[in-house]
Amino acid sequence: MQQPPIFLISSGRCGSTFFSDSIHSHPEMLSVSELIEPVMPVPFLENQNKISGADFFTLLAAPTMEERIDIWQSGITRECLFMPQERDKVSLLLCYALPLLSQQPDKYLNKLRQIVSDFPEACATEHFIRFCEYLKSAHDKTIWIERSGGSLAHCESILRCWPNAKIIHFYRDGRDVACSMRAHPIFRMFVMKRLGKDWRENETPDITEFGKLWSEWVCNAIPALREPNARVLNLSYEEMMSSPDNALESFLRFVFDKELLNEQDLQWINQVKKEISPAKSHFHALNEKDKARLTLACQPGLEELGYLNSSSPILTNA
Predict the structure, then answer these.
(1) pTM for the complete prediction?
(2) 3-class secondary-structure state, position 215
(3) How far is the C-alpha of 95 from the C-alpha of 84, rounded, in Å?
(4) What is the CA 106 to chain-centroid distance, rounded?
(5) Going along the chain, which residue ranges are E strands?
(6) pLDDT under 50 in the chain at which residues?
(7) CB-side neighbour CA atoms (13 Å) of 176
(8) What is the DSSP string of 123-179?
């Protein structure tokens, strides 16, 4: 039975990878990871013309951005899980998504290419759903959830393409996100490109630039998330760390459309709770001047999410 599309969207650097891994450990849920590139056009979100299954798979397995390939090939980040010898095969699908589903991602890629090529002609968004539904069935799951760090940047497009989608908006205090982004080579590259600079330069942008990026993504996404018909679960990292029972129960009820959780669900919650390890707040390690500067840079997004109004976020679920 085909489900409504479900997307776990976030800014990245907020604990969404841990959340994705936890989702994948549930017997009934499949996490489809990192198919959405944050700072580039996403072909299956932009192309609404009818295309063949083979053409869709070409879009899905297309090489990722050149700068990401350079970073992955340098080995300075752990997020690349498989590296083919041929540069033109370095894609989000092959290097991140499929290694989480198969110990032989290159062979699995070829198998999926054959299967998807037989899909009947449709627009790319329909192909994407059919692809995720195939993965769900192939891995004997009942629910699939797409999760890409930085997909918040495409929130409006996601909801435009799939108005019936369920959105889990997972977020964290932007000041901590900015500190984490600054220390991560991929996000450093994003910001360097945003500033019109060569990311290869031995330079790290000012912390406020990462705060501005985070805040812009939040503020651009909020109107779509607050549309009356949008099906959204707002879930903060802080709540996940401080009240995991409540957060995980709300998540399961939202995903499965049920009020009563079964024994399997409760066992999963208990297992996830054992693995939770709150990350240190690097924001609090900044000096007072930099704290003030970063808070100002993040202010629009912080206000939208309620971080400046209380000790904890207050973005509500309608």
Answers:
(1) 0.95
(2) helix
(3) 8
(4) 23
(5) 6-10, 29-33, 50-51, 122-123, 143-149, 166-171, 231-236
(6) none
(7) 16
(8) EHHHHHHHHHHHHHHHTT-SEEEEEEETGGGGHHHHHHH-TT-EEEEEE--HHHHHH
